[in-house]
């Protein structure tokens, strides 16, 4: 299976799960611990995408400490609904190993490698929640991210295909839907947050710009808009993802 198809199927799977699954919204101690660990994790992901080794290492240590807290408190015996998940302990251990590997890479000055390594923690946490019928706002951010990567990583390849402009327009339509879901699925607290509203508006505008370029069949504008998708998303993710 090609990387592009794999990413596309992952994005579709997330959309279907969030749209039609009988999910319970987070209201349990394990998910609360996971969300607490997610905040420093987001910052570690953000910092390893930068240039400061010292800042990346500090953020990564804090993220690892938060995950270690979850591991020590619930890793061996989680509360419901995770108590019936036979893979829970293995997932916790898997994430711990990812942090260890990322720290080695940061220590070696390999920030880009550490960033890519850390991406796996996001998937591990999402899989843990999905297996146990739990959904949080981060899952909608993950769904958007998956589709955004399909476009950013394979947009030029798609454009080079027969009817490539139409194919990419369809991909952008899916991204537009997921951007609207970020607003629809945000908690009441988030919707009242002025900073969140501004960052979310920037994400939506980046998609609108891409759709406009596609409708105008302006190849240069399409490539420019595609390259500008990540920035607004990264800022929203770092603070609220």
Q: How would you characterize this protein structure?
A:
There is one protein chain. This protein is mostly helical. The protein has two domains: 25-132, Four Helix Bundle (Hemerythrin (Met), subunit A) (Up-down Bundle); 137-240, Four Helix Bundle (Hemerythrin (Met), subunit A). It has eleven helices and two strands; from the N terminus they run αβααααβαααααα. The chain has helices spanning 3-20, 29-47, 53-74, 88-107, 111-131, 137-159, 164-184, 188-191, 194-215, 219-227, 230-240; strands spanning 24-25, 134-135. It has a two-stranded parallel sheet. α2 (29-47) runs antiparallel to α3 and α2 crosses α11. The longest helix is centred in the middle third of the chain and has 23 residues, at 137-159. The two termini are 29 Å apart. The relative contact order is 0.12.
Essential attributes:
single chain, 241 residues, mainly alpha, Four Helix Bundle (Hemerythrin (Met), subunit A), 2 domains, two-stranded parallel ribbon, 11 helices, 2 strands, 79% helix, 2% strand, globular
CATH H-level superfamily title of the largest domain = IL-4 antagonist (De novo design) like domain
CATH architecture of the largest domain: Up-down Bundle
Arithmetic mean pLDDT? 89
Using the CA coordinates, give the radius of gyration: 18 Å
Strand order of the largest sheet: 1-2
Task: State the assembly state of the protein chains.
Answer: single chain
Q: In angstroms, what separates the terminal alpha carbons?
A: 29 Å
Reconstruct the topology from this structure.
Layout: H1 3-20, E1 24-25, H2 29-47, H3 53-74, H4 88-107, H5 111-131, E2 134-135, H6 137-159, H7 164-184, H8 188-191, H9 194-215, H10 219-227, H11 230-240
Parallel strand pairs: 1-2
Helix pairs in contact: 1-6, 2-3, 2-5, 2-11, 3-4, 4-5, 6-7, 6-11, 7-9, 9-10, 9-11
